[in-house]
Amino acid sequence: MSNPDQADNYVPPVNLPKVAVVILNWNGQRYLQSFMPSVLASGYPELEIVVGDNASTDDSVAFLERNYPQVRIVKNKSNLGFAGGYNQVLKQVEADYYVLLNSDVEVPPGWIQPVIDLMESDPGIAACQPKIKDYRERDKFEYAGAAGGLMDRFGYLFCRGRIFDITETDRGQYNDARNIFWASGAAFFVRKNCFEQAGGLDEDLFAHMEEADLCWRLQRLGYRIMVCPQSEVYHVGGGTLQAVNAFKTYLNFRNNLILLHQNLPGGKVFPLIFLRFWLDLAAWFLFLFQGRLRHSLAINKAHWHYLRGIGRWQRKRKRLPFVEKVRGIYSGSIVFQHFIKGKKYFSELKYFNNLK
């Protein structure tokens, strides 16, 4: 993490890139009240702070107007979700870099500069994230991103520092800047021109996995995604949809199928989707045995909505070139390694030779 004293003594170079930290808000006044002071103290000279409001019904906008007149507010007319909300707001923001920051994230002084320095060192880096730590247990990684997002060969997402629900203690074991598959939407740095070139966030996804989809599309365009461990932020997590919410289960299962369909090379799409339906059936029975009927039904709904829109996913997949190999893909099965072989930590996994 950056040293606050160093941030105080920092002398910016000439032509420092302009950065816009953009927070998408929906009924999150409590988070804005708690964490906006830390964002304002970020310490980056060429910084604009924007709050995009997704038609909140609480006092969020009035609270910002009363207490933080220096923060620019962009109002959406309805709740457009994470993807649609950000797409609409970012059309009205001018910057070299966007930072999509969740409203429930606390940031330390100097957290922006290390990431910008890394991205400025290589124009091939399109997106990046800091380490995402747990707000309540600050020595532990947080679920939504940890030390960089990855995907296994069957499309299951996980992280350096987080496999399924197990998060590791940060002992410096992932302090190397590495290529990853996806950067977390909790604190997502992206070049504006790359964001636009890739077509922005996919509004069909509404929320969940949209950053992974964008990162895959960026890799299809030849760009790299990285993690910058010299910066870290603290995420509360579950600020909008809790893990026990069946709607979140629906979004995760549906969006994962869409993610695969829209981005895999042609010959791999339907064999993997067929296999995933069987793997999802195992999850269906698990939820049922746990007495979580609403979550089992959410998988049914996810599959139906995926199948109903299959023509749309098929058309959208052709908008960008396909590549056979992308960085940050685990060649094994994270489900098998975790649930059968008992692997709990990323460091226990092998066959990651494409992160350098």
Give a topology summary.
Elements: H1 4-8, E1 19-25, H2 29-40, E2 47-53, H3 60-67, E3 72-75, H4 81-90, E4 97-101, E5 105-106, H5 112-120, E6 125-134, E7 149-152, E8 157-159, E9 162-163, E10 166-167, E11 178-179, E12 187-191, H6 192-197, H7 210-220, E13 224-235, H8 246-263, H9 269-289, H10 293-308, H11 310-316, E14 329-330, H12 334-340
Parallel strand pairs: 1-2, 1-4, 2-3, 6-13, 7-14
Antiparallel strand pairs: 4-12, 5-13, 6-12, 7-8, 9-10, 11-13
Describe the structure.
The chain contains twelve helices and 14 strands. With 356 residues, the chain is of the alpha/beta class. The strands form three sheets. Strands 1, 2, 3, 4, 5, 6, 11, 12 and 13 form a nine-stranded mixed beta sheet that branches. A three-stranded mixed beta sheet has the order 8-7-14, with no helix packed on it. A two-stranded antiparallel sheet has the order 9-10. α2 links the parallel β1 (19-25) and β2 (47-53). The longest helix is centred in the C-terminal third of the chain and has 21 residues, at 269-289. The two termini are 21 Å apart. Mean pLDDT is 92; it is low at 1-7.
